[in-house]
Design a protein that fits this description.
Order of helices and strands of chain A: EEEEEEEEEEE
Largest sheet of chain A: 7 strands, mixed
Number of helices of chain B: 0
Strand content of chain A: over 45%
Radius of gyration of chain A: 14 Å
Order of helices and strands of chain B: EEEEEEEEE
Distance between the termini of chain B: 28 Å
Largest sheet of chain B: 6 strands, mixed
Structural class of chain B: mainly beta
Distance between the termini of chain A: 41 Å
Shape of chain B: globular
Oligomer: heterodimer
């Protein structure tokens, strides 16, 4: 049973970058997909991208292309999401979640989720 | 503006049955399966229904999902106070090549 534990809250200045980690335990890290989903205060959910550690190739939502980098370290079973050029609208809770795979094809549904990491962007 | 459309709120008394709708298009719901998530206040979302109508282990059978054309519905029967939460629908979008979500429906148990 995979469990995901995320790094702690961050406060960042506009224009800077943030890197959030997501450590997996209880499963085979290489054979799963890790997606990142964010939720702005009082708002809905927004998919940012994913990585399949076995393939090491990330996929990004069009909206975040060029600003987000998702990586995975198989040696520590940890995935990372780095978001650059931060602006106030990036203030949100960032979740990692295991995305179900059929073979190597992501199926677009997520279970389980990490506990979330609040990133606040403020001058 | 979310890609999938949900009503912002729904409500019902304990014991009643309530349904939450989710409307999309041919590039998402029309061509792919629908998933539902429950988010209790202050917690991470939890998978409730996947592949239109499948319940993960541990989800009570009071929760059920269905899909028809470019719309889907989540039904909750025998409403309980602990069902008060936000509910999100989601589906793969072929045009965006990724998962998309509805804006969420806040369920209140009266």
């Amino acid at each position: 049973q995979v469990q995901l534990a995320q790094s702690g809250a961050e406060v960042k200045k506009p224009g800077s970058s943030v890197k959030v980690s997501c450590k997996a335990s209880g499963g085979t890290f290489s054979s799963i997909a890790i997606s990142w989903v964010r939720q702005a205060p009082g708002q809905g959910l927004e998919w940012m991208g994913r990585i399949i550690p076995l393939l090491r190739i990330p996929n990004y939502a069009q909206k975040f292309q060029g600003r987000v980098t998702i990586t995975a370290d198989k040696s520590t079973s940890t995935a990372y999401m780095e978001l650059s050029s931060l602006r106030s609208e990036d203030t949100a809770v960032y979740y990692c979640a295991r995305e179900h795979l059929m073979g190597a094809t992501p199926m677009g549904w997520f279970d389980p989720w990490g506990q979330g990491t609040l990133v606040t962007v403020s001058s | 503006q979310s890609v999938l459309t949900q009503p912002p709120s729904a409500s019902g008394p304990p014991g009643q049955r309530v349904t939450i709708s989710c409307s999309g298009s041919s590039s998402n719901i029309g061509d792919n399966t629908v998933n539902w998530y429950q988010q209790l206040p202050g917690t991470a979302p939890k998978l409730l229904i996947y592949s239109n109508n499948q319940r993960p282990s541990g989800v009570p059978d009071r929760f059920s999902g269905s899909k028809s054309g470019t719309s889907a519905s989540l039904a909750i029967s025998g409403l309980q106070s602990e069902d008060e939460a936000d509910y999100y629908c989601a589906a793969w979008d072929d045009s965006l090549n990724g998962p998309v979500f509805g804006g969420g429906t806040k369920l209140t148990v009266l």
